[in-house]
Each structure stands twice: as C-alpha cells, then as structure tokens.
C-alpha cells in the first residue's frame, strides 16, 4: 500500500490520496477519484504518467484519504519472510497448520474438547490443540496465529475471538500431549484481532510445545498457525494422549509422575556409595 500527498492542480489544490490494490485483481473503488471518475479529467496526461496512474481493470486504484478512513476499519502490516529454497540471503523454514478450537459437543475438559481457553483456566488449558517442535540448534522461531474472519463474505461484522499463543519447554523424549501446563518460555499478547505474533530469540536446544488458544474456554473458531524458523524444527500436531498398549497388552497408565532433578551429589561412607538428589515431583 502506497500513499502520498501531492499538488495535482497547482499551489492551492492539494489532495491527500492513497494508492491501493485489490490482490484478486478485480472490483475496485468506484467513488471519487476511481479509475473512470470525472475528477481525473482535471489531471493532464503528463501528470498521470509522472504519478504512474493507469486506468485498467487490474485491481489497482486511488482513493481520497478521507474516503479511506471512512470505509476501512482495519490495517494489517505484514512482515515478509524469505522462504525460498535457493537463496543467497537469509531464509526461513515455513510450516503452516490449519486447526480449530471446538468443543465437539462434549462437556468442558472432556478428551474431545479442544477449546480450553488460556493459561488462566488451568483445568482446561491443555485441551487446546498442541504442536510439538524439536530444536536441534539454538535459533529464533516466530509464530503467526490467524483466525478466520467472522461472517466472511457478508456485510455483517461480528467481533473477533480473543486469541493468543503459549510456548512451553517439555521433556526431550516427549511424544504425546501434555496434561499439565508448564511454565511458558514465551507468550504472545492476547488480542481480539485477526492475527497475533510471537517472536522467540535464541531458543535453546530441546523440545517445545506450542499451544494456540482463545482467551476463554469453549470459544469456537478455526485458525491458521504459521511457524517460521532459521533451522528446521519439524513441528507436528500432537493427537495422542498416551502411548498405545503395545503387542503384549500392557495396561494403560492411570497416572504419570514427572520428576525434575535439580541437583545431585555422591557420598562415600565406609566403602559404600550413596547418591542424594534434590528433586521436584509433578503428578
């Protein structure tokens, strides 16, 4: 989007304009200063050429600034990442996922409830969609979470759902969904907006889970999650809650205990060795 303030007709006729383009290439502005409007008759061909003005059905058009602020309600500023495989400049790996926050018609907190709300709702937070990332070398990771436009394609405008994203470090052998929230290494702002963004720098080696959420539980809509990283992080959606029973029909675990070793030391006494550990237990 390009805009300028130019003197089109001399010193006293200064009009503030904005230059826009419909990316679909059709359906343009048809008010004042549209392609075929009478206002352009006051502008000479040389002035049009100097401004790069063309009258084609190419999706590009000009609008007076006062019309722009009257009819447009939102502006999104996009950051472009170089994702080309063959490039001499810095490139990023891109992964795109499409998902949904949905209750599936079950009660809050049930296994098929995937609309758990943000971390403030600890009892249902882990019901949200979860994405596993494996970081093999330190680097930066960026997350762009976008929700679907309410009433897309209609004139009705409903408010956006408030959305955000959490990223938490998990065990290096983690393969399944988590059922207890861990301290996030990064959390985006929560906003009632089309998109939110989270930029993590110098992410250490390890495994991480990204959890896109709505602010409140049981809010339902679809989303797109884009992940950009300077090294491959192999993100994937986690669907299983626990390991399968296996070939010999081992019983499913009914509880899980996670032990975090904080420190340990070795003590020798009368030829015997004893190891003492200071740890934390999580159930």
UniProtKB/TrEMBL annotation:
Q: Name one Pfam family in it.
A: Peptidase_C2
Supply the alphabetized keyword list: Hydrolase, Protease, Thiol protease
| Claim: Ribonucleoprotein is one of the keywords in the record | no
Q: Where is the active site?
A: 22
Start and end residues of each Calpain catalytic domain: 16-81
Query: What GO cellular-component annotations does this UniProt entry give?
Result: cytoplasm
Superkingdom in the source lineage = Eukaryota
Instruction: Please list the coiled coil stretches.
Output: none
Annotated GO molecular function terms are:
calcium-dependent cysteine-type endopeptidase activity
Q: Example GO biological process term?
A: proteolysis
The record, for InterPro entries, names: Calpain_cysteine_protease, Calpain_domain_III, Calpain_III, Calpain_III_sf, Papain-like_cys_pep_sf, Peptidase_C2_calpain_cat
Tell me the protein family, please.
Belongs to the peptidase C2 family.
| The protein's name | Calpain catalytic domain-containing protein
The organism encoding this protein is Ancylostoma ceylanicum
